[in-house]
Amino acid sequence: MGAATRVLTPSFLLLTLCLLPLFTLEHVQHLLSSLLFSNYLSTLIPPSTVGDKYETKTYTLSTNPLVIYITNFITLLEATQLVALSNDNFHPSPLYSDDGTLSHDSSYRSSLTATLPLSPIVKAVEARAKSFSFYNPNQEEKKIKPLVVQKYGLGKQYKDHYDWFLPHPSLTGNIESTFFVYISANCTGGGTNFPRLRLPSSHPPSTSAHIIPGGLENEWCEFIDCDRPYTDGVTFKPITGNAIFWENVDENGDGMVSTLHAGLPVTSGEKMGLNVWSWRDY
């Protein structure tokens, strides 16, 4: 189906002319430009998202560690802008040692990485991340690191890893929390797997069962790959515009091993994700 269009009919134009004495020229220009821009925007965003693009919802998967799933963290138009901003800036993704130094091993991490330049869309994403109450933005020592896009082509992956660092004399802080935002998900495979997490349930399935045997957890199947064995942990599906938030360290600043996660291999197409990392100085 094509995007809905808004047509300026003769009757509408006649009504506008009749009301001209009540408006200044500036008012009329603003009205017409708003209508035209809305019509243009509706050609860029599918009709299903025009009315509900700001209806963000959050789902708490775990409280320890805190893991929250967010729908509609960004709009499809914003996702397109972020993809465009990252183009021509990609390089092989690095691996980080405990002292923060970089290395490369494509057998372990085969994605591409691009650091985004500061721009209006980047500032908007940063402000949105800070607007969530669970982010704790009032801590003066907490700041957002430059936003980074990860691109996964066919067969590309990032095996089990943490976003936090072990204590080291050269480090003055740690990555306290992560937003991972799917900005392009034209793919199969490529899920984000947390092998040590489990779905909240009053009746967990047996270890040989799949994640969802029915019951309380069914609502999660929209976002989580329910066909994977329960022992595989939780695997989030790549869905454009949605995001995962998790805290990496506990109240003492120690990294939480339960946040181990991986970017699973893409089996067709391409996936792109945006990292919004908060850094806290100690």
TrEMBL record:
Q: Where is the Prolyl 4-hydroxylase alpha subunit domain?
A: 65-279
Stated name of the protein: Prolyl 4-hydroxylase alpha subunit domain-containing protein
| Organism of provenance | Phialocephala subalpina
**Gene3D superfamilies named among the record's database cross-references:** q2cbj1_9rhob like domain
Cellular component GO terms, alphabetical: endoplasmic reticulum
UniProt keyword list:
Dioxygenase, Iron, Metal-binding, Oxidoreductase, Signal
Name the domain of life: Eukaryota
CC cofactor = L-ascorbate
Q: Which residues cross the membrane?
A: none
State one molecular function term (GO): iron ion binding
- Which PANTHER family does the UniProt entry name for this protein? PROLYL 4-HYDROXYLASE ALPHA SUBUNIT (PTHR10869), TRANSMEMBRANE PROLYL 4-HYDROXYLASE (PTHR10869:SF246)
Claim: Signal is one of the keywords in the record: yes
Question: Which residues, if any, are the signal sequence?
Answer: 1-25
SMART domains to which the protein is assigned, alphabetical: P4Hc
